Amino acid sequence: MAGSVVARKKRNVECRTKVKTGCATCRIRKVKCDENKPFCQKCVNTGRTCDGYESPFRIFTSQPINGIHAGGIKSDVGLHSIRPTFTEIAPQDIDLLNRYFSTKTMFDVKLDCDEEAKQVLQASLTDPPIRHAVLSLRALREDLETSGDGRTSVAQQAPSYHYGIQQYNMALGGLASNLSSPGFNRLKSALLCCQVFISIEQVRKNYTAMAQHIIRGLRIMHEYRARPGFVSANKLMPAHHDQLPFLDVFIIKLFVAPCKFADSLATADVSGTTLSACLISSHQQPVESCNLRTIAPNMRTKLTRIAASTLEFLGKVLQVESVGVALRLTSEKAALLDSLESWLTDLELVQKEIRSPGPEPISMSFLRFFHQILKIVLLGALDSSHDLDAELQTENDRLQGVANYVGERVRTYVTCHGSRRGRGSTPQCADNYGKVA
């Protein structure tokens, strides 16, 4: 009898489905987790310590990182200015990082990210992953400004580039290790790192990875309730961590910054650095089509107005203290989402008016990227319900799809542009990219 009981227990254990999701505590116990965030209720209700969830960050690169870095790091050529030697935050350091946050600043565009830069640099004094991330961004940005973006082989890459990639991987690895058991300081570190990671991937023109960082960072903000939000129809919960960095505000600032293509341009330079630099800048391309020159900037202006209203809305959400005020803000949120939907409809009409052969201009694809980010940010505001998860997943998948498309177009352009430098014009590339706005 005792043997049969033991056998039944053994069969039950063997047949139990492996737990691949859920908090670390439930996975160790091999029990089904309710996956409530930030802490599993099964652990809380049984008096256990919930050890959190798997880190949303992982190391990923567009090419293998091998021993080639060692040679670059040993040389020390041109790297003295980006070594971790600072011990206090100087105004010029803040100005420099503020400029390095976005490749748009290569056109003397001013970003409104001084506070974000100061916060990142201050944290980098004591937080190794953030320090590695800052060093990576500085090295990669200086490499871009020195060498340009026309290189297509590993052999052409400078020591500063290899140093930047090494520092990037050290930042990713350190952050993933820290987030194995997240607390406030580690969540703060993750969001500050995420700001720098987004900028790093913009410099690298890796928009697929850039979108992944955006999605993961916004997910952290939402799951750990950086702002107050409803958990049911009339139940308002205060911010769980009311001092987390606002990654969504940072991202909107990057995208909403002025773009050259919205201004009156001179002639398009399809053979030199002007076109190359324009490509790196998130929302701009030179133009040859009068329709695109007049229509695309108007579409960007409309989206910029919605973005400015979204920033005002997020500021109000941060201050909300009563259900009545929150309900009024819910109506404002709905109006902003309607404006985004109307904008997208107008963009489709613009596409029909242009009727140009081939894919849409890269600049318009970047506008879709920006639109999708605004939609995800607004959907998550004031709402912490489980019903929202499926909708956010759908919109995140759409954002990733847009980013993948933009990344493919940019890679094709860089390849074609590099070949034109050595062998003259490539007709197919000119057809696809000569009319971008």
TrEMBL record:
Residues 22-50 form the Zn(2)-C6 fungal-type domain. One of its GO terms (molecular function) is zinc ion binding. Pfam families: Zn_clus. InterPro entries: Transcr_Regulatory_Proteins (IPR052360), Zn2-C6_fun-type_DNA-bd_sf (IPR036864), Zn2Cys6_DnaBD (IPR001138). Keywords: DNA-binding, Metal-binding, Nucleus, Transcription, Transcription regulation, Zinc. SUPFAM superfamilies: Zn2/Cys6 DNA-binding domain (SSF57701). It comes from the Eukaryota. This is Zn(2)-C6 fungal-type domain-containing protein.
